[in-house]
Amino acid sequence: MLLADDQNLVRAAFALLVASAPDMEVVGEAGTGRQAVELARARRADLVVMDVRMPDLDGIEATRLIAADEDLAGVRVLVLTTYDTDENIVEALRAGASGFLVKDTRPAELLEAIRTVTAGDALLSPGPTARLIERFLRSPSALHPPGSGPDCLSERERQVLTLVARGLNNTEIAEALGLSPLTAKTHVSRIMGKLEARDRAQLVIVAYESGLVTPGAGQSQQTSQSQ
């Protein structure tokens, strides 16, 4: 993986932590967003752990460039945020990030998050995700997602998308809708294809920006409406 942060001490701490995991390796470090993009193209790492606030080119634009590069289709971006003060996190998800982490995440949780995103899943915890989406997607300047909207989905697919937006994983979606986990996974894959979404993180953005999921609606309420 690549580590992108403008603070040397932060990069050093992350590198030491990653080195403690036998299944991970740091193949490069970047102090600016532009360096992160250049290293992503040169090293073709599976994952870039990207700080949002960096000089030269911020983490959002760097994420957008990586996600838009067809040669880097297999590279995923995990964004670092201070959460309470960083109002750019949803823009990072729009740009193509597969998830986000708070900088004070505990070491074991950080390693598990890296494994989750590298494996192809989006890192979207229901609580933080809901709060972030509700806070920033109410803006009248919200961008419309690329590709088709939820109108192209079947009723069952709309139900699945709603639960994805609430932060449920495939097993939880299967339990909520009386499906097998494999069927739930198949639905999610088809939805991603129809909506031209890179991963589950972008499905969340589509669900909120299209109005399929209303900010402020509780997870339990939405789940009962879907059944």
3D structure, described in words:
The structure is a single chain. This protein is an alpha/beta fold. The protein has 2 domains: 2-123, 3-Layer(aba) Sandwich (Rossmann fold), CATH 3.40.50; 150-226, Arc Repressor Mutant, subunit A (Orthogonal Bundle). It contains 11 helices and 5 strands; from the N terminus they run E-H-E-H-E-H-E-H-E-H-H-H-H-H-H-H. Helix 3 (59-68) runs parallel beside helix 4 (89-95).
Strand content: 5-15%
Radius of gyration: 17 Å
- Structural class, from secondary structure content? alpha/beta
**First CA to last CA: what distance?**
40 Å
CATH architectural category of the largest domain:
3-Layer(aba) Sandwich
Total separate domains: 2
Give the CATH superfamily of the largest domain.
Response regulator
Q: What would CATH call the class of the largest domain?
A: Alpha Beta
Helix content: 40-55%
SSE inventory with pairings:
Elements: E1 2-4, H1 8-19, E2 28-30, H2 33-43, E3 47-51, H3 59-68, E4 76-81, H4 89-95, E5 99-102, H5 107-118, H6 126-136, H7 155-165, H8 170-177, H9 181-195, H10 200-209, H11 219-226
Parallel strand pairs: 1-2, 1-3, 3-4, 4-5
Helix pairs in contact: 2-3, 3-4, 7-9, 7-10, 7-11, 8-9
Task: Supply database-style keywords.
single chain; 227 residues; alpha/beta; Rossmann fold; Arc Repressor Mutant, subunit A; 11 helices; 5 strands; disordered C terminus
